[in-house]
Design brief:
By secondary structure, the protein is α/β, with parallel strands linked by helices. The chain folds into two domains: 136 residues, Rossmann fold (3-Layer(aba) Sandwich); 169 residues, Dihydrodipicolinate Reductase, domain 2 (2-Layer Sandwich). The chain has nine helices and 14 strands. The protein has a nine-stranded mixed β-sheet with strand order 7-8-9-6-10-11-12-14-13. It has a five-stranded parallel β-sheet with strand order 2-1-3-4-5, with helices on both faces. A hairpin with a 2-residue loop joins strand 10 and strand 11. Helix 1 crosses helix 8 and helix 5 packs antiparallel against helix 9. The radius of gyration is 21 Å and the shape is globular.
């Protein structure tokens, strides 16, 4: 049984509590949150004890779940790692690149497991592609959200776009060659909308747009590769593949003909089947399995560091562009 202590029980933290209580191999021993009103409500709603001191909670558990604001990630990770506690930490891994590098170094020295909460890795629309060959040469992404004052202590890059940066880095097996970006701070002190172009050494190009100033929500990624187009809708949890027909296509695929200069070709359109899934539950279960069975975490601290590195390249490009303007 893995004893879990949770740090931060605000909006997202409550979802984590609900899901930890569903994992048979884990026991939620308590939580730490400095807000008295929030803590009182959580104790009453979930029946788990509040720890008044963070060190006491660390001493009582085997692993921690850090759902506190990003500015607190490093301090909490450091305290946990120095006590040899395994760590699940929400994205982004840390507030600065220096802090992120220190976390990676500390985790290696202490030989503890760290998983970063890039929850879209567990979205069924993405998991549906696990048996498909992905080799995109162009990627187009739109992640739009309505404005919400919660979470605006970080830019839209580290709040929203980093989800897609992580997914793209997981798909494209090549180093980043260059990054260009533009962004605007509309309602906050950091960029609220941004457009980014990432070029990879293998020739792949990714064009990403993220906004938290939209009238509607959208979380879509489109992959274009030789002989195939793949559309992933993270919000609606739907995935569609349009490709040249071959023996791998299911009988349910819709097939039609097109005329090309080289003759007639058959096109197959497939909508991938996917069961209902709880991505937060899946990522917490995966972390539990990694710790109990000594397996690599699905999204390691190194993955979190690399995603942060690209995100900070984007922020630096936006800062430079705005400065020059």
């Amino acid at each position: 049984m893995l004893k879990i202590g949770i740090f931060g029980v605000g909006h997202l933290g409550k979802f984590h509590i609900t899901n930890w209580q569903k994992i048979r191999e884990a026991e939620l021993v308590g939580f730490f949150d400095p807000d008295d009103d929030t803590a009182t409500a959580v104790e009453k709603q979930f029946g788990i004890p509040r720890f008044a001191d963070a060190e006491d909670l660390l001493d009582a558990c085997d692993a921690v779940d850090i759902v506190a604001p990003t500015t607190l990630h490093y301090d909490l990770c450091e305290k946990a790692i120095r006590k040899s506690r395994h760590v699940f930490v929400e994205k982004p891994l840390a507030d600065t690149m220096e802090q992120a590098h220190k976390i990676v170094k500390l985790a290696k020295e202490a030989n503890v497991k760290i998983q970063v909460g890039h929850v879209e890795r567990f979205n069924p629309a993405y998991l549906a592609l696990k048996d498909h060959t992905l080799n995109p040469m162009f990627i187009e992404v739109h992640r739009l959200a309505q404005f919400n004052p919660r979470g605006t202590e970080v830019s839209v890059i580290l709040d929203l776009m980093i989800h897609d940066i992580d997914i793209i880095l997981n798909i494209v097996k090549s180093d980043v060659r260059s990054v260009s970006a533009s962004g605007v701070a509309v309602m906050t002190e950091t960029p609220d909308i941004a457009n980014v172009r990432i070029e990879f050494n293998n020739g792949c190009v990714a064009n990403l747009t993220s906004s938290r100033m939209s009238m509607k929500k959208m979380r879509k990624m489109r992959l274009f590769q030789k002989d195939a187009y793949i559309g992933i809708d993270f919000l609606e949890k739907k995935t569609e593949i349009i490709k040249l027909k071959d023996e791998t296509d299911s009988k349910e695929a819709f097939v039609f003909d097109i005329e090309t200069p080289k003759g007639k070709k058959e096109i197959a359109v497939s909508t991938l089947a996917m069961p209902e899934a709880n991505a937060i539950l899946m990522e917490l279960q995966a972390f539990t399995n990694s710790v109990l069975n000594n397996l690599p975490t699905v999204v390691s601290e190194v993955d979190g560091l690399i995603a942060m590195d690209v995100a900070h390249q984007v922020l630096n490009k936006i800062k430079s562009a705005n400065y020059l303007a």
